[in-house]
């Protein structure tokens, strides 16, 4: 008990799980009341022989409530301070990334044209490139590193910036984001048409009013994501994972590729008629092309791509 009390007072115990500290504090306080009440009741001169545990608890309820209130206010204050510090850190990371990317692009523009081309005969695509091969490697490293650190909304800002700058677009993106950490990414009302990001982890992503027309997202993971008003017309999502994904008002075309896509059992696609605001539910057979092969499974384990598939490049 003494060890637990010291740990609670030091604030080191249960710092990662505050509820443990609250439970132990309450138990420690009640135990302390029991010990003190029993000890004092042994003395006749105290006049407390007839006081029961509940009498003592009623007597000390106000101090206990004040103590818990102090604990709670301190916890709220610490949580708010941590959130503010984390938000400031995230914003600084984003600003630093944009600054470095802008520096790379401006440096390329100031170089003589001949120095901005790889050795050999330049192609038309190379002439149009914003970044040289060396700068592309640097930009890729910067982008993958910052995506590992940022939260969902700020990841969305990074990807939107790259798409609008035509740095991750087909047929040969200047910045290859294969296997990028896009977990929890938030994208809303953006045009991502023609982007190429293979094997991206978009677990728990939230996409609303997003155009992914002619995009290549082969072998990507959308597990537990929410996709609403997403246009996949002409998009390639072969061997992607849509396990436990919420799909509403999804648009596809006859050229959309969903070969060997994995869905959870019972997956349906919710569609709302704009004129009547009526909701209809489409089965997989209604949603996809008749010649599309799909894996429908009860567990996410069967949706994970094999090492052989991961080794393939599109």
UniProtKB/TrEMBL annotation:
Pfam families (alphabetical): Pentapeptide
Record has Ligase as a keyword: no
Keyword presence, Cytoplasm: no
InterPro entries membership: 5peptide_repeat
Keywords: Membrane, Repeat, Transmembrane, Transmembrane helix
Source taxon at top rank: Bacteria
Residues passing through the membrane, by range: 19-41, 53-73
Name the record gives this protein: Pentapeptide repeat-containing protein
Organism of this sequence: Microcystis aeruginosa FD4
